Amino acid sequence: MSLGRVIGLDPGERRIGVALSDPLGIIAQPHVVLDRRADDVLRAIRDICVEHDVEKVVIGLPRGLSGIEGSAAEKARSFGAQVGEETGCEIVFFDERFTTVQAEAALLESGMRRRRRREKVDKVAAAMMLQGYLDSVDRDGV
Q1: What is the pLDDT of residue 3?
Q2: Whole-structure pTM over 0.90, yes or no?
Q3: How far apart are alpha carbons 139 and 114 in whole angstroms?
């Protein structure tokens, strides 16, 4: 059973990392970074969903080390409600602890300079979060 195309959003205070899965919902790839403060950011997300025939939106849910949700998770859930309203897609939340740290480490290890890392880290973190979600999905219904 395939999931169809899935978009992953890693919302931060200033930027939103965006990742897309392949059409079968198996592999996540970094897509783009959006300016969270832009007036049309929800429309931009909707446009990506329409253009790529997205069926589901996975939003990174920041939790503390203990797994407890704080104010950042509350903001992510509120953002998810807005995205769901704008896109009409199913919204799923997925734990995104450490994805930005892992993305930064991977880009640093690749030898990428600081300025380029800053431009890419959010979408790479979104791809890592989305891949974690895709890997966790029970495709056999078991």
Answers
A1: 72
A2: no
A3: 39
Torsion of CA 32, 80, 55, 4, to 10 degrees: 70
CA distance 29 to 17: 11
Give how far Cα 48 sits from Cα of 32, 54, 84, 90, 113, Å: 10, 8, 13, 15, 28
pLDDT, mean of each 10-residue run, the chain (142 residues): 84 92 94 93 97 95 72 90 96 78 60 62 88 81 47
Where would I find the beta strands (DSSP E) of 96-139?
A: none
End-to-end Cα separation, the chain, in angstroms: 12
Going along the chain from its start, the domains and CATH numbers come out as: 6-136 (3.30.420.140)
